[in-house]
Amino acid sequence: MNWIRHKIDQIKEPFEPGNKLQKYRPAINALDTFLFVPDHTTQKGAHIRDAVDLKRTMITVVLALIPALLFGMWNAGYQHYIQLGENPAIFEAILHGAYKIVPMIVVSYGVGLGLEFAFAIMRGHEVNEGYLVTGLLIPMIMPVDIPLWMVALSVIFAVLIGKEAFGGTGMNILNPALTARAFAFFAYPTYMSGNKIWVSEASNVDSISGETILGSLAANKEITYNTAEMFTGIIPGSISETSTLCIAIGALILILTKVGSWRIILSGIIGAAVMGMIFNVLNIEGNGLTNFPWYQHIIVGGFAFGIVFMATDPVSGAQTTRGKWIYGFLIGLFGIMIRVFNPAYPEGIMLSILLLNVFAPTIDHYVIQGNVKKRQKRLQMKTVKTA
Amino acid sequence: MPTDVKIKKGLKLNLKGEATETFEQGENTKTVALRPANFYSLVPKMVLKEGAKLKAGDEVFFSKYSAKTRVVSPVSGTLKEVRRGAKRKILDVIIEADETQVYKDFGVMDPLKSDSTEVKDRIFSTGLGIFLNQRPYNIPANADDTPKAIYISAYNTAPLTGSAEFILKARVEFFQAGINALTKLTGGKVYLGVDKQSASFLKDIENVEILNISGPHPAGNLGTLIHETEPMNRGERVWTVNPEDVAIIGEQFKTGKYNAQRTVAVTGTSAKNRKYFKTIAGAEVKSILKDFEDNSRIISGNVLTGEKVEADGYLNFFANELTVIPEGNEFRMFGWIPFIDNNIHSMSKTSLSWLFPKRKYEVNTNINGEERALVVTGEMEEVMPLDIFPMQLIKACMAGDIEKMESLGIYEVVPEDFALIDYTNTSKIEAQSIIRGGLDIMLTEVG
């Protein structure tokens, strides 16, 4: 271990302050700190520090994403083969999925981290680890056949306009991964919706429909999948959103490690359930989605993935405890409402989260205002007493 | 009737290296230092010149902006040196101590039989006023104020701290006399926070309102006690006193002598002789700390709020602890991976340390990461028992937004209330110094 450290110190030498490559220090530091937790000691404030840091937190989220990612790879391959009438072995299916998805991840990380490094060097701060999660999320919520250049463009848009324009990590208003998806959705609608894009290479096979459940419902077609299939996720859809089971495993990791807010996840599910039940009771004629049982609303489409991995983004979400309850609940509520009332695009969770991202500061403002008012009232009472 | 102060939020840190409860007389310190930095915001005006002879209790300097705030010498001897820094700012006033101590005689006074102006005059004219701290801002008390209450916390919940109960045991009489004097300074109550669990003699102290404290750190912090009893409002003043200083005040009233005796618990895994040492406020570190590991951080105070000092430096005027822990200037390979290096404590559950809540940890000064943007939310609230929004207040302080700071409760906090946030936050921001910065802005703009 010592000689590795020694070697790294040698490599880093031209980057030390005062040397010619000093400007590129954040880049080399980012690589170094992935090998070693630095030897920095406390200079101000408390002399001791907790073991947790942003790297650890972000990697925990990445770990929580792994089950859904692996399942997504298998499912992409599986859906591809069954439309051809074949029944693939697990390995075969994963291989096909990986062939499609790994390049997307490589592009997403390559382009995104490149930008992150460039901004860190430009602004002279260390590279924030947030993109490790964003960069993995972006391919996971795309249709499997999306061209790589589109992934790259979406990443550029998300990082530049979604994040850096607001001042970088911690300052963004919208969730960067969803910004990327929203960009792709509105810029290239033909690649992002319809009934030919959800299964790998479906457009090559005429007459076979690879529609998502929500797509079929919006078109008032019969659903051929049962609840168990919806829950395990052996259905067409964006790469990693189909398996509620794998997402639940991820949610469990996030909640047990306290990295993700259980309040947002729980209140989101409650919100969606409430809205789903309202529609079930109303039972509007001619809209297949209103009759869709409320519990199935929660396990199909991007809802589960969105509420677990997108809504819990601490930067773009509500920051106060009470605010998180309201924020999650409204995401669930609006998500299902948009889903049911928007036949052009049946998946509402993306728009719902983005909408609530915008309103999160307002929610927080009113929560905090309650605290402020209490303080003002105390002061008033005091003045009255002394007067 | 004792009041209960019970909090749930916070963190009890179990650390290795506690001091055993035995007293040892520290070696006589050759010199003592009075450092204006220990009396935050005080700009000193020297009374004596270098070379002057003085007794214990003679005035050394006073505050430029309030002449009644005086600092007197804790020892008799010679004013050896006034060390100055940039712009001739006074850093240390070094006093060489005599072999045998001579005390200035202030005369005996029974505070209960005297009226409050006499008591107040005596406290401020003889330099005892420096032991009174003012909230908001945590600065020396202003003699012209009348605080709405006075708070003393004799239950220190921070990790590796000296036990006020143990320190005061031999000086109960003086402590009571000090309390009697303090009651004359306020129209309100004098509160004394004690550990609810212990059946301590402190609960029999008279003329105070006893607060029975229970809960994790920062239950015993003065900020918590104030918040739970009479929360601060704009324009109000509260004074706080360290328990041992109450005894110093009491002794001066009872005997007429200013005896700035400081009991210091030497703690921390790197210190070898971990006991309670009796010495003088501002004494040399080496008079009580001889044997310790190389590559150590010496902290005058506790690991959360203390001041870094050198082995040949001086103790903080107020601190009852001297904590010595290893410096963490080492690299840890892949130490950022979750569930790696579980021997380092973490409040988050990305380390297995949460499975062993009773385990005692050895700590060092490594930051365990680097400073990052504020990303994670909700973690600060877990260690903040006060009814304020810590992250929002920190941001208001960073922005220097006076109105926001005020409405979010800046008057109710001092940096030490944010010490646990320093410790636990994922982004490794320096919450205490940010709050101090905010308080400084308020101090100059609002006062």
From TrEMBL, chain A:
Keyword set, alphabetical order: Cell inner membrane, Cell membrane, Flavoprotein, FMN, Ion transport, Membrane, NAD, Phosphoprotein, Sodium, Sodium transport, Translocase, Transmembrane, Transmembrane helix, Transport, Ubiquinone
Protein name, per record: Na(+)-translocating NADH-quinone reductase subunit B
Catalytic activity: a ubiquinone + n Na(+)(in) + NADH + H(+) = a ubiquinol + n Na(+)(out) + NAD(+)
Location of the protein in the cell: Cell inner membrane
Subunit structure: Composed of six subunits; NqrA, NqrB, NqrC, NqrD, NqrE and NqrF.
Primary residence: membrane
Gene giving rise to this polypeptide: nqrB
GO BP of this protein: respiratory electron transport chain; sodium ion transport; transmembrane transport
Membrane association type: Multi-pass membrane protein
Co-factor requirement: FMN
Domain of life from the UniProt record: Bacteria
Organism of this sequence: Psychroflexus torquis (strain ATCC 700755 / CIP 106069 / ACAM 623)
Positions of modified residues (FMN phosphoryl threonine): T212
UniProt enzyme class: translocase
Transmembrane regions: 58-77, 97-119, 131-161, 234-257, 264-282, 294-312, 324-342, 348-368
EC number, UniProt record: 7.2.1.1
Pfam families: NQR2_RnfD_RnfE
PANTHER family for the chain: ELECTRON TRANSPORT COMPLEX PROTEIN RNFD, NA(+)-TRANSLOCATING NADH-QUINONE REDUCTASE SUBUNIT B
Automatic annotation (TrEMBL), chain B:
Oligomeric form and interacting partners: Composed of six subunits; NqrA, NqrB, NqrC, NqrD, NqrE and NqrF.
UniProt GO BP: sodium ion transport
Native organism: Psychroflexus torquis (strain ATCC 700755 / CIP 106069 / ACAM 623)
UniProt-recorded name of the protein: Na(+)-translocating NADH-quinone reductase subunit A
Taxon lineage: Bacteria, Pseudomonadati, Bacteroidota, Flavobacteriia, Flavobacteriales
Known catalytic reactions: a ubiquinone + n Na(+)(in) + NADH + H(+) = a ubiquinol + n Na(+)(out) + NAD(+)
Presence of keyword Ion transport: yes
Keywords for this protein: Ion transport, NAD, Sodium, Sodium transport, Translocase, Transport, Ubiquinone
Domain called NqrA second alpha/beta: residue spans: 116-257
